[in-house]
Every structure is written in C-alpha cells, then in structure tokens.
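TICKET #2291
ISSUE: user wants both folds in one file
ATTACHMENT 1:
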Amino acid sequence: MCGIVGILSHQPVAKRLVEGLKRLEYRGYDSAGIAVINDNQLKRCRAQGKIVNLDDCLAHDHIDGTIGIAHTRWATHGLPTEENAHPHMTETVAIVHNGIIENHTALRDELSAKGIHCTSQTDSEVIAQWLTVFEKESDSYVEAIFKTLAKLEGAYALGIMFRDDPTHLYGTRKGSPLAIGQGSNGEMFLGSDALALAGLAENLTYLEEGDLAVLTKDHIEIFDKNQKQTQRPSQHYAGGFEQVSKGPYRHFMLKEIYEQPDVVRQTLNAYLSEDKKSIVFPELSFDPKTVSKITIVACGTSYYAGLVAKHWLEKVARISVEVDIASEFRYRQPPLSKDGVSLFISQSGETADTMAAHAYAKAEGQQTIGIINVPNSSLARAVNVPLMTYAGPEIGVASTKAFSTQLCVLAALSIYLAHQKGMITDADLEAYCQDLSTLPNLIEKTLSLSDSCKDVAEELAKTRDILYLGRGTSYAIALEGALKLKEISYIHAEGYAAGEMKHGPIALIDETVPIIVIAPHDELFEKLVSNIEEAAARKGQVVFISDEVGQKGYHSQAMARVTVPETSLFTAPFIYTIPVQMLAYYTAVHKGTDVDQPRNLAKSVTVE
C-alpha cells in the first residue's frame, strides 16, 4: 500500500528518489519523505499530503547525498501527519517500512522500559529504535538487522541505512514485496514496485520471504531467513515509465477504460488458439477430469470477477464453485478436499490477505491457480499454475482494464475445463471461442456510449444514495458498478441481486434514489423487469442498461436508458461492465474528486 525507493550511487540521489516516488503515486498515499546520508549525518525531509509538498520541503532544505531512501505512506497506525511520515530515524539509523508490525505496542513498551521513547504514533518507528539498540550490541550491521527482525511480528518490506555505514544499503522483506535493481554505472536500487525503478535499473532481483539483501555499488549479497548466504535469480528489466503516461487523457482511469479493447485482445490471444477454435493453456498440475470443486479466493474487484466465473464454471463446466473473500477465508479455515483446486485472483499478486489464504490452501494439500497481472509477483511465484492477464500497468486505483482481463482468463478457463470434462463438444468449444474473439470489437462499440454516460452521470452526481441491481452474472456487475462509484465519487452505492429487492432494499426507494439496472436480454430478463417495475411504481429513478431488444421489453418509466450492443449471455459481463465504469468515472468528474487517487484508498493492499 506504500511505496519504497532506495538508491546507492556515486552521484546525488535526492532528485531521483523523488522521481521514483512519483511513479508510485498511483498506489495511494497521504505523506512522503526521503532521507540521505551527507557529511556523516542522516538528513531527512518529510511532508504531509502530495509529493509536491515534499518538493517544496527539499527546495527549502536542499538535502542530498549519494545514498538515500524514500517512502510514500498510507496511514495505518497514526494520523497522516509529518511526524508520522517515513523515513523514521534515530541518530544512527533510518528506515522506510511497508506493512504492519502487529506487536508494535509490546515492542514500544519494552523500549520505554529501557528509557527509549518513540516520537511518532506509528508501528514503524519501533523498527528504527530496535535497530539502534542492537547496532550497539552486535558485531555487524547484518547481525543487528537479524536480531531486530526476530522481534517483529507481522509483515514488512524494509529499506535501511546506517549513518556510520554509507557504502551499504540494506533491504529485507516478509509478507510485503521488495525488489533489488542493478544499474549499469555502479548503482544499486531498492523498490517496492518495479515501476519505481523504471529508467534506473537494468536488472531486477526479487527477494524471497525472509531474505536480507546487502547492497554495495557493484555487488548484491543475499541472506535467507536462516541467515545463510544464498542466490536469487536476476532478470533483465525493460520497463519504462513511458508505459504509464496519461497521454491525451484527463485521467489514468479514463485512459485505462479506453485501453480495454487492446488488453482484452492481448489477453485472449494468449489463451485462444491461432484459429480461434480452442483454448491453449500451460500444462496444469492436476487432471481437469477429476476436479470436484473449485474454491475462488480474492478481494474487492477481483472477488467480483470470481462471482462471474462461478456462473460460468457451474453452468458450463458443471463444477461446484465457492467464492470467498480472502480476509474471511483465511480465518474460517474451511475444509478443502484433496481433489479440489483453489484459484486466487490478484491484480498485483501481492495482496496480503490473498497470499495468506494461498498459504492455507497449500497447507491443506490443494493444487492452486493464480490469475495475476504482474509477472514475478509473490503470488505468481507461489501458485502451481500462474495464469497471466495482459492488462499492462494499471495506475488508476479503481480497477477497470485489470477486471476485464481477469474475466478473459476466467472465461477461457471455464470453457477449457468444460471441454476437458466432456461437458461441451468440440463444436461448442469452437462456438465459445469465436464468441470471445468478437469481444474487442464489441467493447470498442460500447465505448461510444461515453456521451450518454456523461449525461446520466450529471444527474447521478446530485444524489447521495444509488442502488445497482442485476441477476445472474449481472448481479456481480452490479456489485462492481457500486464499488466503482463508491471508490471515486464518494456517493453511497450498493449492489443487490434484483430478486432480493423486495426482501428489504425496496424500503429505500423513493424519487431521490437512482436505480442502475444491468439488464441483458437473457433468460432472467422478464423476472428482472418485474423486479424493476416494482421499484418504478414507487417513484424509483431507473437507469436501464440493456441492448435494443431489452429496451423494447422494458415499458415502465426510466430516468435514462443506456443501450449497449447485442451480445451473448456468456460475454455479456464484459460489455455491461463498460457503462458502469463510465458512469462512475463521469460522476466523479462532475463531483470534482481525485479520480485516480481517491481518498483513503491504495492500489496494492499489502497489509491485512
């Protein structure tokens, strides 16, 4: 949820540290800071709010050095103030920290008993204080770090500098990602996100759980969790920051909405055969014919993708599916059958709750699949079968193109398993594949609805509460639409299964409550229309999203109608997702909120 950048160089690093932080702004943050070693002293600038405030601090204080660490913080313990911003320092140690130290209160009390008092409200500062304690008691800085890590309970990625050791930069991780970058000119880098090192590092090394990296300008030494020297694979890094430019678009979110035809095409091309008649997957670690149940585990938008897949897998492949929220799954500890498969969906591949749920599933003997957008992420390396999406970097906090590409992989997996289990014929498989291959063009047509969505959004922006209704796979899209609106417009919105409206939510309906209806003309259409007519009879302000046939089939009053291209039942979730994304985006624009970086939210949730 936070960003870490570290640089060890032979030239000043402050400017590049800030540039690295700016590449991580999309992850969400509420304060920022850097620390450097200069003239045998630790020097620091921190600022509440956006990085532009840190620029102002640096313009005033002019600190710089050839070694430094930097951080963007998303507040967990303590208010988002300058005092709680990272880096945290003592006279001899500076640290930046992603994650949560669960036993920080006990560690703080232990420090107080030694006469050492923290100056911030954070859980992170205790790390710097304990490093200082052990620095004095140890024969080496590596020993001091491992002694400190032994006291920590929770998750962390750490960048560490010692005042009296300006030729070394230290990085360690447990439960939160951290990468090492190597430059071409005798430079080393730390980054919580590869994008932070774009244009800097030529090679990347991803630390494993419990690793400690000791960096000099031309060498990487890595110790594993048992304090034994080890090697980790390095790979060439061709990433460039130009990949994440907004281009001509006002916001990253709008750009990413419009990128969906291309990324859906790229993702489908990875899984559809060249003739678009069958599915091509990497070799599975299990026999599809013997799978009795699939457990899908995810958070947020990825969870809603899983709900769509539940319909596909159960209806087409006839496999029983349970979809669970990762944070609930890991503590409920459900029994998992040996012939079952657990499927984990995570855009970042670093979501803390999802990673913990995966560890539980593996301990239960399950084969695991991951649907992930980031190669070499923790989840991609951990699962038996990683299935990549090809959305490219997604900067807007509210996920759009990552959701669509997750649906691509889930759709392909569903029909692949159905065919392997003999639930569909070769001809059926070809028909499904041909259907999927039409999606990029259909999505392009759907994007032409932007003007209609702008007009509706102008009215939505005046409201305080909005309901989203759907049935079947459209119920999942209703949930996703409501989440999008909440995230970026700050309007209260809820998604419901339309058939449940009369069991409670109908009490909320009056002339002030818009009702967004996702209504593909499918086998549930007539039942859905009956549900909506009940709402319209109570002065509900209906926004009816359907194709031309569906619009003709709904005869009651509507505040607005949005007409999407005709699509099949199987591919409808892809098409109906586009207008709910646009409605959320343009509503937020009308309200003047920070669309790409909405308050209180982070792109990658790497803490529980």
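ATTACHMENT 2:
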Amino acid sequence: MITQVTGNGRVLLTVNHNGEWNELFYPFPGQFQHLREMRLGVFDVTGGKFAWLRRGNGYELHQTPYGGGHLPNSVWMGHGITLAVRDHVHPNHDLIARVFRIRADPPRPIRLFAYHAFQIAESMYQDTAFVDPAVPSLVHYKRGYFFEFFADPPYARAVCGEHTLKGLKGTYVDAEDGRLEGRAVAHGAADSVMEWDLEPVASEDTEICLFMAAGRSLPGVHQVRDYVRDGGFQRFVRESEAFWDTWVQRRLPRAPKGLSDHARAVYRASVLMMRHATGANGAVIASPDTSSLVAAGDTYNFCWWRDGGYCAKAMDEAGLYENASRFLEFARNCQGPDGSFFHRHFPDGAIGSTWHPPPFLQIDQTATVIAAVWHHFKRGGDPDVLLDYWPLVKSAANFLASFREPTTGLPAPSFDLWEERLGVHAYSAATVAHALERAARIAEEVGKDPLNWRTASGEIWTAAQREFWNDRLGRFVRSLFPRDERLDASVLFALKLGLLPWDDPRARAVVDAIEHRLWVPGMGGLARYEGDEYYGHENPWIVCTLWLAEARLRLGDRPRCRELIEWVASHATPTLMLPEQIDRGTGEPKSATPLTWSHSTFVDVVHKYAESETRGEVPEE
C-alpha cells in the first residue's frame, strides 16, 4: 500500500508500507510506471549476516512525513542499526534525491545495498542497464527513457543482471553473501545493485546521498548529473526541502478553524495530494496506486473528467488557481469533436481504456467540466477566463442540450458515475441541469444568448423532479430505463446541485432515508448504494460520507457535519492518505489509496464548513 508521495508535476514517486519505492512515474504523474521493484539490504560484516530491510526481518519500520511538504521519511531500526531514509523530488529538475543516514551501536563495518529492477515504459523487455566506472554511475534505459544513478560518496561496487525471464529471481541474490560479483552491463529484463562499504558509529550519522536523474536522452541525464556534481550534492537536497517549506508557507492555506488538529493535518495533506496528482500539463490522475492491476487488470492512473473537475474546484478553493487552470487547459485539448468527453484519458491526453460500448459516455463527466469552468471564474473573477474557455463551454453545452431522451426530456441513457449501469440516472440528470445553468451564466458574462441552455436546464430539472420522485417510497429513485429504486448516496450530490430546495421537507426526508439505510453499523461511514459489492459488501466510502456531511450542513446541522468530517479524518492512514473506501469489518483502507477524489472532496467540504461559520450560510455550489 502507498504510504507517502512526492513529485514535481513530471516525476511522481510513491513509497509503500515497507519503506520501498513503490511506483516511479515519468514524464507525467500516472504515466509511465517504470519501476518493478526496489529494496534495501544490510550486511553486518562482523557478524557475517545479511538482511533485506523488511518488516519481520528483525527490523521495525516507522514512517512519518518529513517537513512542511510531507516528504517521504522512513526509519528502520533493528540489530543495533538505525537507517533513516528521506526521499525528495527536486522542484525544477527531474531528479530524485534519496538521503540515507545510518548509525550502528556498537560501531562496526556494514555494507549497504540498493537494488532496483525496472520495467521501463511499463514493459520489462528490451531494457538495458550498464555501469560507467569513469563517473561512477549506473544507467537504466530503453528507447526514450533514461534513469541514471550516482551518489555522494560514490558506491564501492555496482553490478547489473536480469530478473524474471529465464527463470531468474533477480540480481539482488548477488548481494546476499555480502559481496557483489556480477556484470557491468545487462539487457532484457535488466536490474542492478549498488554497494557502499561503511563504518557507522552510534553517536553521529554516516550519510549517503543517492541521486537518480530521469530524462529522455543519455546526454540529458548526464547534464543533470554533472550539474548536481558541480553544484554540490547537498545543495540539491537543501533546495528540495526549502522549496516545499516555502510552498507550504506561501501557498498552502491555513487549515480552517473549528476542527481537530488531526483533521487539520489531513486537510493540509489533502491539498498537497491534489498538487502531486496534477501533472505539469494539467492532467489530474485519480490515484497513483497501481495495486488494482492484479484484481481488475487496470489501474486508476487516468484522468477522469468527473474526478478532475471536482479536484479543480477544490484547488480553486484552496488557492491552487494555476493548477486548476492547467486542468481546464488539458480538458480543452482532450474534448471530443461533438463537445463531449471520452470516459477517461491517459495523462498525456490520449484516450484511455474503457469497458463502455460506444458512445463511451458518462454524461455527468462532460457536465462537470462546464461547472469547473464557472467555478474557476467565480473564484478568480477574471472574465478573460471565460473567453479562453468559451469554445469548450459552448461545444459541451450544445452537446448536453441535444443529448436528451425524447419522451421525458431527461438526458439520454449513459453510464452512471459508478461506471456500472447504462440508464438515465438522477445524479447524471442533476449534473447536466446544473451545468447547463452554469453555461447560461457564462454566456451572459461574455454577452452571448443564454436562452437555449437555460431553457434546457429548466426542462431537465422539472422532468427530474417529476420522473425520479416516488410518492410510495417518499424519495427519489436512482435511475430509469431500467428503473432502479435502490438507495444511492449520489442522490445527496444531486440534492446539492439543486434537485430540490433544501427548505423543501422532502430534502430532509431523502437525506434521512439515505443515512438510515446506508450508514454502516459499528464502523460508521456511508456506503455507496444498497447491495454494493465492489471490494466488499457495502463498505463505507470517503466521498459518500463527505456528501452526507455537506447535506447535513446545508440542512443546518453543523455539529453533525463536523462529526462526519472528523470520522473521515480518523480513517486516513497513519501517513494521512485517504483511500477510496474502508473495509466495513477491519477499518483498513480498500481499493485505491490515496484517491485524489477523496482528498479533493475533503478539502471542498472543509471549506464549506468553515465558510458557513464566517458567512452564516453555505456558499452556492
């Protein structure tokens, strides 16, 4: 499981619960995942014993994010050895600095080994690894991706080999007798090991700075390597730390008052997570987690327009205006010719994989992008923004206004936000009506005629209130064509967008019914819908629980809203990551962890909670 994340919009590094590098993405967060395995090992020369640093190997691991930027920090302790590791991704250069600080009590000679196996461009074939003894450095490459390791002090020995293919375990076995004896070059499924011969003491740190430069050419990574060596290794470590301290002081908003210290810490971590999930080109990935490959055959390393749009709105709330702007620019570049948005895109803008048949639509995703444009303008107040994105809005709104079911006037069938069912859904209808009204407001701001979109919005709202409401049940059904009467937490979001006024007694009845049925006994938290079996039976979801928090806030129950915010914060991981869902039996994170949508919704609801205190009301969506 991912426990820590750091990046610069091009390089994204994750660290797992064993303190090892888990994923290495480049040149975009979420694309490509180049790392197969990383591990650290220690050989006690005096005792003649070797161990990989793993839990249960005689070592205990403690992980606490370091500094204002929550930089990955892992500390192993065992066998009289303490090894602290901090990872930094440089803000300017595509460069990772990994700083080892080692102590031994009693003092004695040890050998530290660092093993890396790559799957460059997400394939473990045709890679090359070679040692350059003149530098010294160690390079892994394939086609247009190059990764060069170098260190201060330099490694004593480095070898290359192969893994997985030909029945091979990996070159890490060469380290297990305490001495490297392998080759200087390897190709195929290439891997490598570096060795440092050390004599740490108990009273002060023995320090190693290991760097990895990423680039698209061999001269490119050499240039970064030489720049670091000429400028001083420690300088680049200090720059990484100083940048994040400055960023937190200058850019990270103060956590709203009225919440526990822990909830405020989760809020700060959530803002940082949104920043790390956003590429320099504006793509916002749903999660860096790749663990779903085994269970589902695919990952969350894509840009969904729903997740990205809500993240952009939360970034605007938290002051990350430029990041939100870059997302909208990315959306403009990915929009389809008819104005709609494909199911999901790769972080480089290519259309992503999908299990939907043509026309590959979740209609709410197109609607969410329009709403994000309006919110971006509302927070920034710059009319030029609306001119910039007018072609996007016009095309998307015309598509939504025409993509209608003729008998009811509701949006035509598409897949629901949970990506499971084709039909006409209450949530989707609400997002479309809301987006068309926002498009009409944008039209007014830039001097265009809003009538068609406003009329379509009103027609959809009227039809939604008529068609989805069920007098017998005393609530809204979640979808039509086919009809599905199961309670679904997404109806809370439809209420937020305007499905009913909050002072309508039916609104409270709907919220009460959803909380009564979908609240998870004992564990707490709100499930997605009746009968949900995704990663377990009716597990509580972070976003659904936060939707309930906002619904209670809009109904005037601030104490309940705060309780729900605190419940979510209490179910963050020890390193402040919010998962997609929680196991209803164990309380452990389930599915993607961290999930950007969970973090962005936490930021959004915390801001609404804070603004309701200062303004006396919850701001309009």
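RESOLUTION: both attachments delivered.
EXTRA DETAIL ON ATTACHMENT 2: The chain has 15 helices and 27 strands.
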